[in-house]
TrEMBL record:
This is Uncharacterized protein. Residues 382-427 form the External alternative NADH-ubiquinone oxidoreductase-like C-terminal domain. InterPro entries: FAD/NAD-bd_sf, FAD/NAD-binding_dom, NDH-2, NDH2-like_C. It comes from Serendipita vermifera MAFF 305830. Residues 5-339 form the FAD/NAD(P)-binding domain. GO terms for molecular function: NADH dehydrogenase activity. Belongs to the NADH dehydrogenase family. The keyword Magnesium does not apply. Keywords: FAD, Flavoprotein, NAD, Oxidoreductase. GO terms for cellular component: mitochondrion.
Length: 451
């Protein structure tokens, strides 16, 4: 038996392809589907339908699925305590899963993370987040609501300006891509329905850092800022949000800013489950579970030689975990590579008949048993969409591309990475419609294809 806690990027890639003759996977997650997060910004503005970003957990071959959230884990008793929304989160109906009954069952913690708010007052109440498909649907409704209210004859000019001011806090890839998609939606589609409102539209992106997209080379980040400036997306760096009220953003450096919609995307905060988890080592910076290079959860206690012991039978992968001494980005790329690596390791362990030994593992034991080196991350490409069929892509420091070709890579990556055949067909068709329109406009404007 192997219990996968979570049904996101990390869990999906570890469970798909797991040797079913050796393991019986059980996925425990409060939502019955996997979310293809890179498509969320497109679904929030209506370029793609929300269902193109979803895959049912039930489509994972050979996996059992329980729709429940893990409330706590007792490492000493080897128990996972769960509660289900299908039973109205009734504590009387919560259940415990013993994960080491026969000494051969394992557990993988892959519960992801929430959006960080730094406990800034008013953010949870008045901002929109972009983490789930339901968030994307809410955002789409609010954009349309702002335009519809602004178009009423009784709406004052001042109110129109407020309603059509869209603020985004967080200059990472998610905030940048959402700003770009929003710009496309407004200028390509809504401009036709609401031409008289266009002079009032304003998109502002705020970040506390001196520049946006800090994970990219400075030349690519500068290209993004210049591209945004040409599109009249205002980038405000070195800005600290102090408070949010309904329709008003308070900043330390300037006067209060009125908005119609505020989207918040400022990094990750651990879920209550991880925050309250006892008996595991966590990193000081973000409170993530620390693992060794073989993705095994570490105990806070150390051996006499100063090396942390592992928690028997437990792995942690994805945004909720970090490898001790190796700072990797919190991305789907890292999460899915860790999941795939773990799947191969587990299959190898089973193939070599070492499943019973897994509890007593250590790095030296692994070498002895020839089950491979630790996890190695390979950055395939870091991508960000900038709007108007422009993107930036970076493989490693100093190796980046930008413009239309990077956009093709960006769209191509998501076409090939979606899981089901249905979405493999649906996403390219919808994207091709966008591409045809892009090409037509390009030809009409008689511009070059590459930058
Ligand atoms: C809008 C957006 C766009 C992004 N774009 C990109 C991109 O282009 N490229 C990229 O590399 N990364 C991207 N990312 C980051 C990427 O999505 C995350 O790094 C990735 O989802 C992490 O995978 P995970 O499996 O750790 O967590 P998730 O994919 O978030 O999955 C966590 C799972 O755990 C479940 N869960 C939560 N709490 C519990 C609990 N208590 N018990 C049981 N289950 C629980 C959740 O329901 C979910 O199924 C993007 C993120 C967002 C929000």
């Amino acid at each position: 038996m192997i219990y996968m806690l979570g049904a996101g990027w990390a869990s999906s890639s570890s469970v798909r392809g797991l040797s079913l003759k050796d393991y019986q996977p059980v996925v425990i997650s409060p939502r019955p589907y996997f979310v293809f997060t890179p498509l969320l910004a497109s679904t929030a503005v209506g370029t793609l339908e929300p269902r193109t970003a979803l895959e049912s957990v039930r489509t994972i071959p050979g996996a059992e699925y329980w729709e429940a959230a893990v409330k706590s884990i007792d490492f000493e008793k080897k128990e996972v305590h769960c509660i289900s929304g299908l039973q109205n989160w009734d504590p009387q109906k919560s259940f415990a899963v013993k994960y080491d009954k026969l000494g051969s069952s394992l557990k993988v913690i892959a519960v992801g993370a929430h959006t960080q708010t730094f406990n800034i007052p008013g953010v949870r109440e008045h901002a929109y987040f972009l983490k789930e498909t339901r968030d994307a649907i809410k955002i789409r409704r609010q954009i349309l609501r702002c335009f519809e209210e602004a178009s009423l004859p009784s709406t004052s000019t001042e109110r129109q300006k407020q309603l059509l001011h869209f603020c985004i806090v967080g200059g990472g890839p998610t905030g940048v891509e959402f700003s770009a998609e929003l710009h496309d939606l407004i200028h390509d589609d809504l401009a036709r329905s609401f031409p008289s409102l266009m002079p009032f539209v304003n998109i502002s992106l705020y970040d506390v850092a001196p520049r946006i997209l800090s994970m990219f080379d400075s030349s690519l980040a500068e290209y993004a800022s210049n591209h945004f400036a040409r599109q009249r997306i205002e980038v405000h760096t070195l800005r600290t949000v102090t408070r949010v009220e309904e329709g008003v953003l308070h900043l330390k450096e300037e006067d209060p800013v009125k908005f119609g919609m505020l989207v918040w995307s400022t990094g990750l905060e651990m879920t209550p489950l991880i925050k309250e988890l006892q008996g595991v080592k966590k990193d000081e910076k973000a409170g993530r579970i620390m693992t060794d290079g073989h993705l095994r959860v570490l105990q806070p206690a150390q051996n006499e030689d100063g090396v942390s012991k592992v928690v028997p039978d437990v792995y942690a992968i994805g945004d909720c975990a970090v490898i001790e001494g190796a700072e990797l980005p919190s991305t789907a790329q890292v999460a899915s590579q860790k999941g795939a690596w773990l799947r191969k390791r587990l299959n190898l362990i089973a193939k070599k008949g070492l499943l019973k030994n897994e509890a007593s593992t250590s790095a030296s034991k692994d070498a002895e048993l020839e089950i491979g080196r630790g996890f190695q991350y390979h950055n395939i490409l870091t991508l960000a969409y900038l709007g108007s069929w422009n993107a930036i892509a970076q493989r490693s420091e100093g190796h980046g591309i930008r413009g239309r070709f990077a956009w093709l890579l960006w769209r191509g990556a998501y076409m090939t990475k979606t899981i089901s055949l249905r979405n493999k067909i649906r996403v390219p068709i919808l994207c091709r419609l966008v591409l045809v329109r892009a090409l037509t406009e390009q030809i009409t404007a008689n511009k070059g294809w590459l930058w």
